[in-house]
Write a structure and sequence with these properties.
- The complex is a heterodimer of chains A (325) and B (308).
- With 325 residues, chain A is mainly alpha-helical.
- Chain A is built from 15 helices and no strands.
- The mean pLDDT of chain A is 84.
- Chain B has one domain: Orthogonal Bundle (MetI-like fold).
- The chains are: A mainly alpha (325), B mainly alpha (308).
- Chains A and B meet through helix 1, helix 6, helix 7, helix 9 and helix 13 of A and helix 5, helix 6, helix 9 and helix 11 of B.
Chain lengths: 325, 308
């Protein structure tokens, strides 16, 4: 029950923070040099259409009234039309969001699980060769420059060896084939996903491994581990059932703390692999001066960041009964 | 506290020296620390070398120095050790200039963010109550914001960002982590007897903060500085890689952006590999340096194997 109170309090906080972000973004759009109208209205529209859109967005009104129009449009999901695609921004964002969530959550969960597992092994073999190899490996993969790693991945595995497609998320011949069922389509997406997923995984698992190792070494010095040993429990049971679950808690916290880092990495990975996600759309819209699309992608990324933080916090409160907020 | 004799001062000086020397002795035992320091020395040497080539030949100017006989991508040769880029510019000169920019961006952004973080952390911890809540909530918000994404948005609105704007913005985004640690440290210091003694002796808040708390949190700030350098270099490189760097400076990220965008990444490994290796190694070496310093400051880590 306490968890519910905590969750709802955090939800209110999140709404307030999001409101602040919305307001700052509104102000930035008005403060930036140049004409704010040209930033929301497609320069290629006919004068009549442009006038209609200006009225709809309230751009001919004083700034503080514009602000209410802005909030109203935001609440009704009205983000305007993308200059580049000529479609409503909401539609584009809606298309891209599942792709981002697919890549992002899979990579985070995979790297956290592998990081926890390998960190456990490293701490168990402290000072031995296994430990040194894992720690140094984690340090190196963690600090590699992500876009460069992505380029190398493409160069080696897609270009030289030809094992995976170079870019994109789907191959058209599979998706245009009317006979293709769900299975070949999913296999196709998986095939495209291997390289971006591996890149994100390699970048992320190292920090989780290092945190798990340190935390595990600390946990192993606790009294209850000594008790477990004194009871004559097998080492494997002590490691997997007594030490590891507690030691994994800081990893959960660090997933939350490194979310900003992961989102940056996600945007870079999507861009290099031309994975049709939100991050790539943001980079694309920024370089093509597609302001409505950039604004909506930014807001969505901010929302994703806030919500995933909440999820991590709730997960933490659920996993660690000692924590009560 | 006041009216310190000369003798007293000498003792204090000696105390600092011995602390430094004992710290150095621990640092020297750390394998990672030694590698990190060596690599950093090499990069510093690279940055210094970047000042030399223009003196020799304008052809090696990293930005504008085009080889008159070469107008396209060429492989390594005796004249251009790493080859040339799509305009016939020397890649080695660009790589050396990149080292300079990386140090500049990394160190200045880290310095600013650590300065901000330390100041805000001390104020929040010492003042408590309203100031504490306000500053720490602000830190929470900024902490979860992905700096790269925000910088992209600003690039969309304000056009081309200058390198100092980027540095300043990275600093604005990176202080919360530092300030949390410094705040915790300040909170634990606040109730120590020596602070209470200073307060009873009539020291003002400012004097207590600067004279008595600052020296005790500074080692931690320095530790964080090395980690901040890492993230600043990565953010700048990523921004340049996406094509939003300062067009008047050459950074390694920008070199990668060129090799990627001009479509030479599959046929010019001599262009693709060096900048990426440099960014990765410089971040790795700052990271290793930070870990080694961690061992010096935190005795608990020291007892654990060398690689921690």
């Amino acid at each position: 029950m306490e968890l519910w109170i905590y969750t709802s309090r955090r939800l209110v906080q999140i709404v307030i923070i999001f409101f602040v972000i919305l307001t700052v973004l509104f102000l930035l759009f008005r403060l930036a040099p140049g004409d704010p109208v040209s930033r929301m209205v497609d320069p290629n529209l006919t004068p009549e259409d442009a006038q209609l859109l200006i009225e709809e967005l309230g751009l001919d009104q004083p700034v503080w009234i514009q602000y209410f129009y802005y909030l109203k449009n935001f609440l009704t999901g009205h983000f305007g039309f993308s200059f580049h695609y000529g479609r409503p921004v909401v539609q584009i964002i809606g298309d891209r969001l599942p792709n981002t969530i697919l890549l992002f959550t899979t990579s985070i969960i995979l790297s956290a699980l592998v990081g926890i597992f390998l960190g456990k092994i490293a701490s168990w073999h402290k000072g031995e060769k296994t430990d040194t190899c894992l720690t140094v490996g984690a340090l190196v993969t963690h600090t590699v420059f992500l876009p460069w790693l992505a380029l190398i991945m493409i160069w080696v595995f897609a270009y030289k060896l030809g094992w995976f497609p170079i870019t994109g998320m789907i191959s058209e011949e599979v998706w245009l084939d009317p006979d293709a069922g769900l299975w070949p389509k999913s296999v196709d997406i998986l095939h495209h996903m291997v390289l971006p997923l591996t890149t994100l995984f390699l970048i992320h698992f190292g920090s989780y491994l290092l945190i798990m190792r340190t935390s595990m070494l600390e946990t192993l010095r606790e009294d209850y581990i000594l008790t477990a040993r004194a009871k004559g429990l097998p080492e494997k049971v002590i490691r997997n059932h007594h030490a590891a679950p507690n030691a994994a808690l800081p990893v959960v916290t660090s997933v939350g703390l490194s979310l900003a880092f992961s989102i940056n990495g996600g945007a870079l990975t999507e861009t290099v692999f031309t994975w049709p996600g939100i991050g790539r759309e943001l980079v694309f819209s920024v370089s093509h001066n597609d302001y409505p699309l950039a604004q909506a992608s930014f807001l969505l990324i901010a929302a994703v960041v806030l919500v995933s933080n909440l999820v991590v916090d709730i997960l933490y409160a659920y996993l660690d009964p000692r924590i009560r907020y | 506290m006041s009216g310190k004799s000369l003798d007293n001062r000498r003792v204090q000086k000696f105390h600092w020296m011995s602390r430094f020397l004992s710290g150095w002795a621990i640092f020297r035992q750390s394998f990672l620390g030694k590698i990190g320091l060596t690599l950093l020395a090499l990069f510093a040497l690279m940055a210094l070398c970047s000042f030399i080539p223009p003196l020799v030949d304008p052809m090696y100017q990293p930005m504008a120095g085009v080889d008159p006989e070469i107008s396209t991508v060429t492989g390594p040769s005796t004249r251009h050790w790493l080859g040339t880029d799509f305009m016939g510019r020397d890649l080695l000169s660009q790589l050396l200039a990149g080292a300079r920019v990386a140090f500049m961006v990394g160190v200045s952004a880290a310095f600013m963010s650590v300065f901000l973080g330390t100041a805000i952390g001390m104020i929040a911890g010492y003042m408590g109550k309203f100031a504490d809540t306000l500053l720490m909530r602000l830190a929470d918000i900024i902490m979860v914001m992905p700096a790269l994404v925000v910088l992209l948005m600003l690039a969309a609105l304000f056009g081309q960002l200058s390198i100092w704007f980027i540095v300043f913005f990275i600093a604005l985004f990176r202080w919360p982590g530092v300030s949390r640690v410094i705040r915790a440290q300040t909170l634990s210091l606040k109730h120590r007897p020596f602070i209470e003694a200073a307060r009873v002796a009539g020291a003002s808040h400012l004097r207590i903060i600067f004279r008595h708390i600052t020296p005790n949190v500074l080692p931690l700030s320095f530790l964080y500085m090395t980690f901040q350098v890492t993230s600043a270099i990565i953010i700048e490189a990523a921004l340049a890689f996406l094509g939003f760097g300062d067009p008047r400076t050459i950074s390694w990220g920008m070199m990668l952006q060129w090799v990627w965008k001009t479509g030479h990444m599959f046929n010019a490994p001599y262009w693709l590999l060096p900048p990426g290796i440099c960014i990765s190694l410089i971040t790795l070496s700052f990271y290793m340096l930070g870990r080694a310093m961690d061992e010096v400051l935190d005795p608990r880590l020291r007892k654990e194997g060398q690689t921690d």
